[in-house]
């Protein structure tokens, strides 16, 4: 049942192209986004002037990405918050607020309580979940189901990529309702999303390279992850995967913060995994990251660089280079996360741990 793989997680990583295409299929028709359940009126959707995204763990990282897309496409301010923090600080909510609750299981206690709190304050709630009929969708006003299929590994992989796609669909739905994008623009954005399963299929070709790299990284004391813009949530996700599976000290940082503290951690041989923005798509940030890499390498870090194919400028500073296909900036996390998932799983395996059932963790966290 593991499809010839040593553990479920690797199978699930390889299922990501299907998870994405199944999630996209049926959610876009006649130039617009189709939700699975929709009890928010067109008028109310148009009046939304503030979005909160609430989630935990990996789902929270996907939520951080929702902010980039929704603010860019819809011009609505978006705040992304850990569900466990949300209701304890008395957030400002009302009828014009949309709360997007993201939960693979649909049963996470903190996310469910955040939804309940939002509803007592008359906010509209839209759930993104991979589990039909689970509690969070049942208590929400609108639902978009990801169709990633069942995920056995405790670590979220294919559901994460499906959540990113779902978040972007919600962004397009809001843009459509508010009229900030024309139908042809919506269709264009959707067609770029629809090309991603193929791009993920091609990034899966790096699996053997990353597995080999893992054999050389499994004795590291710690690993740092750096990124900027959409690469920042990916850095956080890479670090979370390594913590939960390989029980290693791992931290994700926004690369711009290096000089404000984290650079003091750099020492000889410390692996630092860097998410490189596209040189064409984001040339300013590309230049900034390049100088960060140069700096940390000069201080002895071992640089593991995830960069777009054809990024020649980064080569001299990459002790290890993992190439990913060129895709639009907002969509880069869908390809750049994949090597980090494989890296964490394989390091865990080499350290002798159960990749699918890491210690102390449950697939669904139903207590606060
Ligand atoms: O079921 P949910 O999406 O609500 O779960 C949220 C987190 O518990 C989950 O993403 C957790 O962080 C994963 N084990 C990470 O791989």
From TrEMBL:
Name of this protein: Glutamine--fructose-6-phosphate aminotransferase [isomerizing]
Known role: Catalyzes the first step in hexosamine metabolism, converting fructose-6P into glucosamine-6P using glutamine as a nitrogen source.
Keywords on record: Aminotransferase, Cytoplasm, Glutamine amidotransferase, Repeat, Transferase
Keyword Cytoplasm recorded: yes
Location in the cell: Cytoplasm
Residue numbers annotated as active site: 363
EC number: 2.6.1.16
Main location: cytoplasm
Residues of the full protein shown: 257 to 624 of 624
Example of a GO biological process term: carbohydrate metabolic process
Residues annotated as domain SIS: 41-180, 213-358
GO MF annotation: an example: glutamine-fructose-6-phosphate transaminase (isomerizing) activity
Subunit structure: Homodimer.
GO cellular component entries: cytosol
Reaction(s) the record says it catalyses: D-fructose 6-phosphate + L-glutamine = D-glucosamine 6-phosphate + L-glutamate
């Amino acid at each position: 049942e593991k499809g010839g793989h040593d553990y479920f997680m690797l199978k699930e990583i390889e299922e990501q192209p299907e998870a994405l295409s199944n999630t996209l299929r049926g959610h876009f028709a006649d130039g617009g986004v189709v939700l699975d359940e929709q009890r928010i009126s067109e008028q109310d959707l148009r009046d939304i002037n503030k979005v909160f995204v609430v989630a935990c763990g990996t789902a929270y990282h996907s939520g951080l990405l929702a902010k980039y897309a929704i603010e860019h496409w819809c011009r609505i301010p978006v705040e992304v918050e850990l569900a466990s923090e949300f209701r304890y600080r008395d957030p400002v909510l009302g009828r014009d607020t949309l709360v997007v609750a993201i939960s693979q299981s649909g049963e996470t206690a903190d996310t469910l309580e955040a939804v309940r709190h939002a509803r007592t304050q008359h906010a509209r709630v839209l759930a993104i979940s991979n589990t039909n009929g689970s509690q969070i969708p049942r208590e929400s006003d609108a639902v978009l189901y990801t169709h990633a299929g069942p995920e056995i590994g405790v670590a979220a992989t294919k559901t994460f990529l499906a959540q990113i796609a779902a978040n972007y669909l919600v962004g397009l739905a809001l843009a459509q309702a508010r009229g900030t994008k024309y139908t042809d623009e919506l269709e264009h954005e959707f067609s770029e999303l629809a090309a991603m399963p193929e791009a993920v299929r091609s990034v899966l070709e790096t699996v053997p390279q990353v597995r080999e790299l893992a054999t050389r990284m499994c004795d590291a004391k710690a690993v740092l992850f750096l990124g900027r813009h959409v690469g920042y949530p990916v850095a956080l996700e890479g670090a979370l995967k390594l913590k939960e599976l390989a029980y290693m000290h791992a931290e994700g940082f926004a690369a711009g913060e290096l000089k404000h503290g984290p650079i003091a951690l750099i020492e000889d041989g410390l692996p630092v995994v860097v998410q490189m923005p596209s040189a064409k798509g984001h040339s300013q940030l590309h230049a900034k990251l390049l100088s960060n890499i140069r700096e940390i390498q000069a201080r002895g870090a071992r640089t593991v660089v995830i960069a777009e194919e054809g990024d020649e400028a980064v080569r001299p500073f990459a002790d290890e280079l993992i190439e990913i296909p060129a895709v639009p900036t907002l969509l880069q996390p869908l390809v750049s996360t994949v090597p980090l998932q494989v890296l964490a799983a394989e390091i865990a395996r080499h350290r002798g741990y159960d990749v699918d059932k890491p210690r102390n963790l449950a697939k669904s966290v139903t207590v606060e």
